[in-house]
Design brief:
heterodimer; A: alpha/beta; Rossmann fold; 15% strand; globular; B: alpha+beta; Ubiquitin-like (UB roll); five-stranded mixed sheet; disordered C terminus
Chain lengths: 414, 101
């Protein structure tokens, strides 16, 4: 029997074949991959994982592809950094950073989901891939499509950071800048996806694509020595990453690869786009969409598709959701850089700022083994920190000039 | 008011394959009721038992989410375009807790 039984509606449980479908045609609920876990259990052990490839594909048994991986062979298995200096600054004993700023090839966690999505898209026979993106996803789809020789269309909001636009164009996809915010892009792409037979990775391929995020959880457990952390802090955009990290930890528990999971899952949103945090705060069980206004453009989804499930996960695990405003985001980025030498994009600033708040509020306790997910590289969002980092000291090419300047600097520091 | 309603793929089996239909209705609620008259069964797909629009269905009037307007009471004028679009959630882990024996 195959590892993938098919797709199944998350809400009404109606079953579908493992095709490019994403919505239950009856209740509009999301479709999920339905695995044959008994078969997976027999094939998978800590040994088979550690002997596997040094990439996210070491967990292929738990990913929704039928054959061997064909796209994105080097993604994942990013460093788990023990962040002692940041931990001290925040008042924690055991803080780890899952550093996806160095994911291959486009420096964000999206390289995980895209590796899975495009491998699956090829299995399903597509020759054209596409996505709606706040930037990182488009970068990753563009790069992977180039390497796989697939036609590629990426749809982005027209006000994206320069580096994220360039980071698409360089791979020669068709880049479509839509005059509107991400929610406009997403709505438009839903309509386009129903008219064209393309593999829209986060629309009709979404049930497969989203599963790639589970590898962050698998790596977390493996890199911590086959255990689950006490607390995780995850940025929320669509909400999919947070729910899939939880799913990944629970799968490892059920497959007896790690002991009982007691992890509390907390979410981080930007103040200027916090529909999930707002629902959490006022104890509402549905999400009211908002119009985003934040420098954290990669998290600027005002109508988060998985917001409902993210909220549910946070509540069920005893986690919390907090927000960070623009200055706090910048402070988060610089604090992370100055203490750990990691340059994160704005989403990372949100995560660090929220981590700090949760510690201050006592939601994360000093002794908790805590993992924060740093999901994208700071060179992609330079605009956000340009005013906060100062300028180089200019000198003449002479020792005198250097010494005078150093003296000046010293005097200024005194 | 004659408005254009864009029908998402999963509902086209009810509209004889049509992706756009014309409906006369003064607001979204009435459009849904009239749609159901013309294409019986479509309302239960869009709305739940309490007559609320289902959690995973988004409705837009001229590209604006009706949740930013007056929901089902959002008034329509001649020539407006109404889009019914499924949300694109990925789902998560409730099933994980319950495993086959």
């Amino acid at each position: 029997m195959a590892k993938i039984k098919g797709l199944k509606c998350r809400e009404c449980k109606k079953e579908y074949p493992a095709e490019p479908l994403h919505v239950c045609e009856f209740c509009f609920g999301p479709l999920e991959v339905n695995y044959n876990y008994n078969e997976i259990r027999e094939a998978l052990s800590r040994d088979t994982i550690t002997q596997g490839p040094k990439s996210l594909w070491r967990y292929a048994a738990l990913l929704p592809v039928e054959g061997p991986p064909t796209v994105g062979l080097h993604g994942g298995l990013t460093p788990m950094v023990k962040a002692d200096r940041l931990a001290r600054a925040l008042g924690l004993d055991a803080l780890y950073l899952k550093n996806d700023t160095v994911n291959h090839p486009t420096l964000s966690f999206k390289d995980r989901v895209v590796a899975v999505a495009l491998t699956r898209a090829k299995e399903l026979g597509f020759d054209t891939v596409a996505c709606a993106s706040t930037g990182n996803l488009a970068n990753s789809v563009s790069a992977h499509a180039a390497q796989a020789g697939l036609n590629c269309y990426v749809f982005i909001p027209s006000d994206l950071e320069a580096a994220k636009i360039l980071g698409n164009l360089i791979y020669k996809p068709r880049v479509v800048a839509v005059e509107g915010n991400y929610d406009d892009v997403n709505r438009l792409c839903s309509e386009i996806a129903s008219e064209y037979s393309w593999a829209f990775v986060n629309i009709n391929i979404r049930p497969y694509y989203a599963e790639g995020s589970k590898t962050l959880a698998y790596e977390t457990a493996e890199q911590l020595g086959w255990r689950s952390p006490d607390h995780v802090v995850v940025p929320i955009a669509s909400g999919s990453l947070l729910t899939k990290i939880w799913k990944g930890l629970k799968e490892f528990e059920q497959l007896e690869l790690i002991p009982h999971v007691k992890t509390r899952v907390s979410g981080a949103q930007a103040e200027g786009c916090s529909p999930v945090a707002e629902a959490f705060k006022v104890k509402r069980d549905f999400i009211k969409p908002v119009k985003p206004k934040t420098i954290a453009k990669s998290l600027a989804i005002g109508n988060p598709a998985d917001g409902y499930y993210a909220l549910k996960t946070v509540k069920e695990t005893g986690g919390s959701i907090e927000t960070a405003d623009d200055p706090e985001i910048v402070d988060g980025i610089t604090l992370l850089a100055e203490t750990e030498g990691i340059f994160a994009e704005t989403a990372g600033g949100v995560t660090v700022a929220v981590l700090k708040k949760l510690v201050q509020q006592g939601k994360i306790r000093k002794g908790d083994v805590t993992v924060a997910y740093i999901t994208g590289h700071g060179l992609k969002t330079q605009e956000a920190v340009m005013q906060a980092v100062g300028e180089p000291v200019r000198i003449q090419p002479s020792l005198t000039s250097f010494e005078q300047t150093v003296k000046n600097l010293k005097r200024r520091n005194d | 008011m004659s408005v254009k309603v864009r029908i998402p793929t999963p509902l086209r089996s009810l509209t004889a394959g049509q992706s756009v239909v014309e409906i006369n209705g003064k607001d979204i609620g009435e459009v849904i009721d009239l749609l159901d008259k013309q294409y019986p069964g479509i309302k239960t797909r869009i709305c739940d038992e309490e007559n609320q629009i289902r959690r995973f269905v988004n409705i837009y009037v001229n590209e604006e989410d009706i949740r930013f307007k007056q929901g089902q009471a959002t008034a329509l004028k001649e020539g407006d375009e109404v889009s019914i679009i499924p949300a694109i959630a990925g789902g998560a882990g409730e099933e994980v807790g319950r495993w086959p024996a």
